[in-house]
């Protein structure tokens, strides 16, 4: 850091001095920022409500939305766990099915070759 505690800018452009915001401008910025934050929350709840298929009320409370969302996620996790279990079982059964198929192949009737 240069003497005096000021840091240098990396580019060679001169920084234009900023004029401090008035109290009214600061307040307007704060209000706009808070409105954006609230809109993001509102949109998030709306999107969550659309994703959770168990919500049947037209305008459920935020607590109801969150409760249903948690249960919905738990149900999805359980469904995924069961599907993984079935896949693992199928992977285990596949080699046995191949062996059985190979051992039965000599006893299978051969279909005639198609006419040319």
Automatic annotation (TrEMBL):
Glycoprotein as UniProt keyword: no
UniProt-recorded Gene Ontology molecular function terms: DNA-binding transcription factor activity, RNA polymerase II-specific; protein dimerization activity; RNA polymerase II cis-regulatory region sequence-specific DNA binding
Ranges for domain BHLH: 25-76
Record-level GO cellular component terms: nucleus
Compartments it resides in: Nucleus
InterPro entries, alphabetized: bHLH_dom, HLH_DNA-bd_sf, Max-like/E-box_TFs
Pfam families named among the record's database cross-references: HLH
UniProt entry keywords in alphabetical sequence: DNA-binding, Nucleus, Transcription, Transcription regulation
Region (Disordered): 1-37
Statement: the UniProt record of this protein carries the keyword DNA-binding: yes
Sequence ranges of Basic and acidic residues compositional bias: 23-37
Protein name: BHLH domain-containing protein
Taxonomic source organism: Coemansia reversa (strain ATCC 12441 / NRRL 1564)
Organism phylogeny: Eukaryota, Fungi, Fungi incertae sedis, Zoopagomycota, Kickxellomycotina
